[in-house]
Write a structure and sequence with these properties.
265 residues; mainly alpha; 12 helices
C-alpha cells in the first residue's frame, strides 16, 4: 500500500498548508492593544500589525467564540501553544489539554519521513486540513471586523483626546482639582475651536474632526466626559506606558501653526 502513495505530493500539500497557516494567527492581548492604539493615533504608536491589517493581510482579534476555536485548533495542529503568550486567552483546562498533545505538524512530518500511515497520522492530517478550512472561513470575517473596528474607533473614540486633556492640565493647571481644571480648560477649548474654524492647522495626523470631538455642540465647552474624569483617572492617563507626550498634540497654543487667510500675504 505504501508503495502506491505519492509521498512527495503529500509533503508538498502539507508544507503549503503549514506555510499559509503560519501567516495567520492570533494576536496576544499586548499585541492587540498596541495595534488598537496605533489605529487611534493614526500610526503615531508603532505596531508591526497595523500595516498588514490595512493592506488586507488579516490577523484574528483576541475576542469571540471564533477566536477561541481558531486558537485551540492552531495550537493542536501546529504546536503554537508552546510559544510564549499564545494560549493565554484559553481556559486553563484547554491549555493543559493542548500542551499534553503532540503537535500535528510533528506527527505528519514524522510520518512523511518514515513513509508510514497510521491512525495518528490520519487524525492529524484531518485536523490540519480542518484548520485550513477554518482559516479560509475566518479571513473575510476578520477583515470585515477589523475594518469596522478601525473606522468606528477613529470616528467615535475620545480616548487619545483624554490623554491630551490630562497632559494639558498637568502643564497648564495649578492642580488637578476641579476648580483649577476649570481655569485651564477654556484655552484648550479655544485651540480646538480655532482648528475647527480653520484658524489653526491640526497638529500631526489627527484630522479636524478629532479636535471637534472634544467640544460640545456649540463649541463653547468640552464635552461632559472630560469634566467627569476624576483625579485618579487623570493620574492613570499621565503614566500610560505607550501614550506619551510625543503622541498627543502640543500642550500650549504656541505649538500650533496658524493658517494663512486666503488672499493674505
Amino acid at each position: 500500500m505504501n508503495g502506491q502513495i505519492d509521498w512527495q505530493l503529500i509533503s508538498d500539500i502539507f508544507e503549503g498548508i503549514a506555510d499559509d497557516l503560519g501567516t495567520f494567527r492570533n494576536l496576544s492581548q499586548e499585541e492587540y492593544e498596541r495595534a488598537r492604539l496605533s489605529w487611534l493615533t493614526y500610526g503615531l504608536v508603532k505596531s508591526e500589525f497595523v500595516r498588514p491589517f490595512e493592506e488586507g493581510n488579516p490577523q484574528i482579534p483576541p475576542d469571540g467564540v471564533q477566536q477561541q476555536r481558531w486558537h485551540m485548533l492552531a495550537a493542536l495542529a501546529l504546536g503554537s501553544a508552546r510559544s510564549e503568550g499564545f494560549a493565554v486567552l484559553l481556559p486553563g483546562h484547554i491549555q493543559r489539554h493542548i500542551l499534553s498533545q503532540r503537535p500535528d505538524a510533528e506527527i505528519i512530518r514524522n510520518a512523511i519521513s518514515a513513509r508510514y500511515i497510521d491512525d495518528e497520522f490520519l487524525i492529524s492530517w484531518a485536523r490540519i486540513n480542518q484548520l485550513r478550512g477554518v482559516q479560509v472561513a475566518l479571513k473575510p470575517h476578520a477583515l470585515d471586523l477589523l475594518q469596522k473596528k478601525i473606522e468606528g474607533a477613529r470616528a467615535q473614540s475620545r480616548e487619545i483626546q483624554q490623554h491630551w486633556y490630562a497632559r494639558w492640565l498637568k502643564k497648564n493647571a495649578a492642580s488637578l482639582s476641579p476648580n483649577d481644571r476649570e481655569k485651564a480648560a477654556p484655552t484648550l477649548v479655544g485651540v480646538c475651536d480655532d482648528i475647527v474654524k480653520g484658524k489653526l492647522r491640526p497638529w500631526g495626523p489627527y484630522p479636524v474632526r478629532w479636535y471637534r470631538n472634544l467640544l460640545n455642540k456649540v463649541c463653547t465647552h468640552l464635552v461632559d466626559n472630560f469634566y467627569k474624569l476624576g483625579e485618579p483617572r487623570l493620574l492613570e492617563l499621565l503614566v500610560h506606558p505607550i501614550i506619551t507626550d510625543n503622541i498627543v498634540p502640543p500642550l500650549s497654543r504656541d505649538g500650533f501653526e496658524a493658517r494663512t487667510p486666503r488672499g493674505g500675504g
